[in-house]
Amino acid sequence: MKQTTNAIVMIRPVAFRMNEQTAVNNYYQKVLDGLLPSTVNAKAQQEFDTFVEKLRAVGVDVTVIEDSLETDTPDSIFPNNWVSFHENGDVALYPMFAENRRHERREDILDTLEDKGFKIANIMDYTSAEEDGIFLEGTGSLLLDRANGKAYCALSPRADEELFIEFCEDFDYAPVIFEAYQTVDGERKLIYHTNVMMCLGETFAVICADCIDDKKERKMVLENLKADKKEVILITEAQVNNFAGNMLEVRGTNDKKYIVMSASAHQSLTAKQIAQLENHAEILSSSLDTIEACGGGSARCMMAEVFLPKN
């Protein structure tokens, strides 16, 4: 199984704003005072378009889908939370914590991919769990080490342990389960998505081990990464707050590898960390300040990787 892909789906926002329904447990979101909603959306669109241009310039196959004004979906820019695409032709649809995020799931996006020649064999639909108040938000909640058959999950109100284990059984992954925390107003609170504090590349892993308060769990996670011969690059909680954990490795022209992140993530890294990352792939960064502030997500959240086979 491949760990990285050349093909991604991205959703261009039309009504982007801070989502009040997700702010209850996403402590990275901020209100940008004095900015009209139209200004916030325009800034987000500008950041989105520049980001897509940079990805396409290095040969990443980006399928851009326009969001619709018919649904109130302020977070549609983060598609990796509702869908994942797999090498065997499976597509997984996930249950979402915020009610207004459930409208982001659109069948026409799957049709668009099929029109591009991707083959969808089977849809694994976990969304009925929403009725029981159980959530698992895609590759935000679960980090897939596709090559080594492991899935990492930091449990939270948006990542249910039983459903995660069910996913692992369905997709043949060994579950690696832990809890990750951040300090909010002096209190330790669960981090809402695993991919904020951790990134898995082919030959490296970026992780904020300090977020895993339980020493046994921390040791277990690091041992799993090292057992799979990944260079572990440690980041701090301050760097997590700058979205340095929210990276994704993708492939461009001639299968060249790139580590994609936001400008704020890139700027937060030390010279040593940058050198460590550049041993594995070239860094590609883009300014996502408005998207990060209002959305509480960053570069990795904006890219849904497509591993589907092609006709």
From TrEMBL:
<dbReference type="InterPro" id="IPR014541">
    <property type="entry name" value="Amdntrnsf_FN0238"/>
</dbReference>
<protein>
    <submittedName>
        <fullName>Amidinotransferase</fullName>
    </submittedName>
</protein>
<dbReference type="Pfam" id="PF19420">
    <property type="entry name" value="DDAH_eukar"/>
</dbReference>
